[in-house]
Amino acid sequence: MQLLFLLSTMRQLYIMLFLTSMNCSMHYKGRVVIVLDPPWEDLFETESIILKCMAEDGSSGWKYEWAKENKGMLEKLKNTPGSNGDTYRIISVKEYDSGIYWCQADRGTEKTESASCTLNVLKGHPGVSITLQPPFTKVYVGEWISLKCEVKEMSAGWKYFWSGGSDSNLIQAQYIPDATAIGTELRFKPVNLSHQMLYWCQALRNSFQSTSSSFLLKITDKVPMVLLSIQTLKGPIFSGETVSMKCELDGDSTGWIYIWYKGMEHNSKFHTNSSRDPAGSNYIITQSRISDSDVYRCQAERPATHFFSKFSETATLKIYNTPKPRLTIETKWMKVYPTEKVSLKCKIENFTSDWIYTWYKDGIEQNTCRNSQTCSVYTINSVAEQHSGNYTCRANAHSRYSEISDPLSLHVFSKYHLCFH
What we know:
Elements: H1 2-19, E1 27-37, E2 42-44, E3 49-55, E4 63-70, E5 73-77, E6 87-90, E7 99-107, E8 110-113, E9 115-122, E10 128-133, E11 139-140, E12 145-151, E13 159-166, E14 169-172, E15 179-182, E16 185-188, E17 198-205, E18 208-211, E19 215-216, E20 219-220, E21 226-231, E22 237-238, E23 243-249, E24 257-262, E25 269-270, E26 282-285, E27 294-302, E28 307-308, E29 315-317, E30 319-320, E31 326-329, E32 335-336, E33 342-347, E34 356-361, E35 364-365, E36 377-380, E37 389-397, E38 400-404, E39 408-412, H2 415-420
Parallel strand pairs: 1-8, 2-9, 11-20, 22-30, 32-39
Antiparallel strand pairs: 1-3, 3-6, 4-5, 4-7, 7-8, 7-9, 10-12, 12-16, 13-14, 13-17, 15-16, 17-18, 17-19, 21-23, 23-26, 24-25, 24-27, 27-28, 27-29, 31-33, 33-36, 34-35, 34-37, 37-38, 37-39
C-alpha cells in the first residue's frame, strides 16, 4: 500500500510539474474540480462534451491549463476560447479522444493541485435490446410483466421511448391500454390478449439515438393445469408408512412454486418447499397417521407475476390401521395327544393382497411352510410334547408387515398321560 501511495504521489507531482512548465517558485493552494456537460464519461463517436474546470472553494481570479494523458504520454491542450481557459470543448468526439484529462489553475504565484477525469469513447452505434421481465418462455393473460429496454454498452444518460403495433401502424406507449412506461421498462398491469403485438424501444441521449429490433410479445389465455399423483406401494396404505404426493405442471415449470391444500377449504393451503425441493412440488408424509386421511389438491403459482394455474383434480388419501391377522385352528382341539394332527390358519381380513405368512412359536420363527406359497396354514402332522407352546403369525406383502396375531396356546399331553388313559 505504501508503494502504491508513493507511485500515485510521484505521478501527481509529474503532472503538476508538466502543467507548470517546471516553475519551481510556485506554491500550491487549494484544489480544482472538473465538471462534465453532459455528466457522463462514456461517449459514442460524434457526441459532444464540455469539460469545465473550477476552484473547489469557489474562489475566482484563476487561469486554467489542460493536459491529456493517453498510454502514459502527456500533451498540453489548447483551451477553448475564453477569458480564463476554464472550459475545454470537444464538438464531435472520436476514438482517439479517449484518455485521462487533467486540469490545474494558477493565480500569480499560487497554483492549485491538479484534478483529472477519464473519457471513454466507444466506436460505432450503441446496440439496444428488449427483454421480457421476468424472462419466462410463455406469458399468460392476467400476469404482471414488463418489457425492459437496455443499451448493450454500459452508459448513462439515456431516455427511453416505447411504441407497439406493426411497421405500418405504430402506437405510442401512452396510447396502449394498461401499459405504463417507467424508466427503462414498459409495464403491463396486467397483460391481456390485446397486448400481443410487436414492440420497439428507442434510446435517446441529447441528439444521439438508437432503436431496437422488434420484439414480439406472445400471450396465451389458456390457463395451465397441474396433475396430482399419489405415489405409494401397491395396495392400501397403513399407518406408519411413507406417502409421497407429486404436483406437476403441464409445460415449462420455470419460475413456478406449488401450493398444497388438505380438504376442500381454500384456507387449508400449505407449502412444502425445502432445500432439496425449492419449488415444493413434492409432499411427503414419512410417518402417516389416520388423521392424514383426506382429499388433497394442489396448484402452481408464479410469484413474480401474481399468477396461478388451475386447481388439480382432487386425490383421496385413505390411511388404515395396520392390519392384524386372525389366527384360528383348522382341526378340532388345542389340547391334543401325541401323534395327532394340528392345523392352524392365519388370515388378514378386509384387505386383499399377496400376503405371505410367517409363523412363530413362543416368539421364535418356525421353518417356512413347504406346501403352500402363502403359508397361510401351519400344519403339524404328528404332534409331540415339544410342540406345546404359544403360536402366533404375521403377514407381509411387498415389504409391508402386519401386526402380530393374538396367540393360540397348543398343549400336547405327555405320552405317560396317554398310557394312563
